[in-house]
Design goal:
about 375 residues, seven-stranded parallel β-sheet, 13 strands, about 15% strand
Length: about 375
């Protein structure tokens, strides 16, 4: 079977690239197509493949400015020659599903999310841009919405990374989808023998992850909080607001993150993520998650058993959730948390995805595979 995998950009390893890594293991002979590629920051598993880029790669400073070339990406994708492929898998958080497959090819889209900056989050993404940029963006987005919706018909089967994203696929594309959370290498995380006296917030300091809620809540409660992660546009603001009980740490090594996760009292997760891999990593480390009850955590956290879900995205709601957690803290069993997390392990992801694709191939009339 000749397989093509289409990925938005290959510039770093994040959750989307972990899915691509799993696909690369499933189909070791597959060709990978992407807009922009930087081999220095990509895993060896992916680099073993034949990787082809669109013309966006050749545009000035494409590795840094690729987001500004979004209006050109529909053209770039439709120029890709995918003739002769039996199976095409698009990994969609950008417009990758807009490729044109052969009529005889099965097109599966693993959807991380319909383009947030085109649909429901467009106002948040561009509100701080200058007037000229906003002028052109408003006119560009209208056309991208039309194109993005119309190209959903080129997909034979959508797979969503969470129930939250499945609802967004139905809302914007009017298509059903199968829910399959992304893979987590749970074997890399283990519970600690001794638990520390701190809560943990982990991620980049960007608005949608809501580090401000964590800071405001722990400023008021006085409880110990460690905030670790990559630099973002809210880094300076968070450092200025945080009181002495809050420790702000920058980028941490994977080994340091393993230790922080396994020894924290609980992970604090006040943002909205489409899937949310970090909460699964926390549970694989034997630690519960205190999270806002929206987004991907609704698919992975069992309220009262593997974590605490709070219903208002406010510091007050987070404070109440932490207080509730401390009353029932001893009821959380680290071993049970680890067992729960294992269902999202990469091995299980590959097994489930393989079964879905094989069933779709049979339904598509490709019984030979």
């Amino acid at each position: 079977m000749k397989v093509a995998i289409v990925h938005f950009v290959l510039l770093y390893m994040s959750g989307a690239e972990k899915v691509l890594e799993a696909l690369s293991e499933m189909y070791p002979d597959a060709d990978i197509f992407t807009h922009v590629y930087d081999p220095e920051n990509i895993s060896d598993v992916i680099k073993k493949h034949n990787i082809q880029t669109t013309f966006v790669q050749k545009l000035p400073f494409s590795k840094k400015l690729y987001k500004y070339y979004l209006p050109l990406m529909p053209i770039a994708l439709e120029e890709l020659d995918l003739s002769g492929y039996d199976l095409v898998i698009s990994c969609e958080s950008g417009p990758t599903k807009g490729i044109i497959p052969d009529p005889d090819a099965l097109h599966i889209c693993y959807c991380h999310s319909p383009m947030r900056y085109v649909w429901d989050r467009s106002h948040d993404y561009f509100k701080n841009q200058n007037g000229i940029t906003r002028y052109f963006v408003k006119r560009m987005i209208h056309k991208l919405k039309i194109w993005d919706h119309s190209t959903s018909s080129r997909v034979d089967q959508f797979i969503a990374n969470s129930t939250f994203v499945s609802r967004r696929i139905m809302k914007y594309y009017r298509r059903d989808s199968i829910v399959l959370p992304p893979p987590v290498n749970t074997k890399l995380f283990k519970p600690a023998k001794i638990i520390g006296d701190y809560y943990l917030w982990l991620g980049r300091f960007v608005p949608y992850k809501r580090p401000d809620i964590a800071v405001d809540a722990f400023n008021k409660s006085g409880k110990k909080l460690i905030m670790a992660g990559g630099i973002g546009e809210e880094t300076k603001l968070i450092k200025e607001k945080a009181k002495g009980n809050i420790t702000i740490m920058g980028y941490q090594s994977f080994e340091a993150i393993q230790k922080l996760l396994s020894e924290c009292k609980a992970l604090i997760f006040p943002g909205i993520e489409d899937a949310g891999i970090i909460p699964v990593e926390a549970m694989a480390s034997g630690r519960p998650v205190i999270a806002f009850n929206k987004g991907g955590v609704q698919s992975t956290i069992i309220d009262g058993k593997t974590g605490i879900l709070f219903n208002e995205q406010t510091p007050e709601a987070l404070i109440s959730a932490v207080e509730h957690y401390e009353k029932i803290e001893n009821s959380f069993d680290p071993e049970m948390l680890v067992i729960h997390a294992k269902q999202y392990d990469k091995i299980n992801f590959i097994d489930k995805l393989g079964k879905i694709i094989n069933e779709e191939l049979k339904s598509f009339g490709k019984n030979d595979y």
